[in-house]
Amino acid sequence: MIVYNKEELENVTLLDQAQSLEKAGFMNKKQYDEISKELIIPKRHNNLLIRGAFFLLGIFLYSSICSFFTLIIVDLIAENFKILIFLYALVGFVAAEFLSKQKFYGYGLDDAFIVGAQLTLALAIGISTDGNGLIISLILMITSLLSYLRYMHLSMALLFFFATTSSLVYTLFELGATGKTILPFVLMLFSAGIYYSSKPILKNLKPTFYHKGVLLANSFSLILFYLSGNYLVVRELSVALLGAEIDPNSDISFAYFFYAFTFIVPAAYLVYSLLKKDRIMLWIGASAMTFSIYSIRFYYAILPIETFLTIAGLLLFACTYFAMKKLKNKATGITFRLDRFTKANAFMNSEALIASQLGLKPETVLESDMEFGGGGFSGGGSSGEF
Description:
Elements: H1 6-24, H2 29-38, H3 48-73, H4 81-101, H5 109-128, H6 133-151, H7 154-173, H8 177-181, H9 183-204, H10 211-229, H11 231-242, H12 255-276, H13 279-299, H14 305-327, H15 344-358
Helix pairs in contact: 1-2, 3-4, 3-5, 4-5, 5-6, 6-7, 7-10, 9-10, 10-13, 12-13
């Protein structure tokens, strides 16, 4: 199923790990260069700017090929332009297959054709089915999964999760008001199922090139679970989908549950991530907590915005200060010490920037138990007593 050589995909993972070890200082540049020469990998770009430039070039090439075919067959298809859009999708799939056979993997050009083929296919199905969301999402769910299993591109894995979620949502829409009412709870169960099924897979996964896709599923489930019960999301969807009119002195059904959910889930993410040392969950939890505060304040603005931001800044400073004081001397577990796999220059540059903005100057203190002086000769430092 995979178009690439599996050993070369394993080598990509090994080279990425070697690069992280080299940046962390566990090996020198010469050792890393020797490893990179020994490992055979597909053609790819780690630099996002270069990859983005080739992605734009791929879009231009894709559009040029489609324009060429349009000029050739435009007189043959008359007014049936649906065939033309399906042809565009076919061009994308054929070009993606050709570039992958040439060992282009995350190069930029292949990204443009793989993503472009899916988007044009969705457009063609949408035109053919008068915008039937369920059919579009079901077909994209299948094609994106097959594309990920063949080309191993994370963009296809992300599209698969979005298409699967959309298929579930549109299926519930077919049930009418009942399906729309239970939508948040079904999405919670769905995301929880993805999370708890991906955890053992991550532990027992042997082909390393599948690791990022499963990790993406794990992270996607955490975000989906939180958004499924967020008060702002549920309330706005109730108005949009059910046509509910919420009076100033009334609220949505199960309002207290969604109030509690909005704050308990991000707090649980933060606590669990610290206990398990899960950095991705920590980022998601912090972002979710920020959005939770915004969600409540969107409806209940108790304080002026400037007063609220000032109090929030003071609380954040206090929590950060006491956390630093508590963790700065710890060497294991949760610690404030620098992570060797994190670029030290970012911290050093931040420290220098803060010091320059506040007008701080480095303080040099020399402390020693030895007292110097007492000599009468240049550089002697001796008083003549033994």
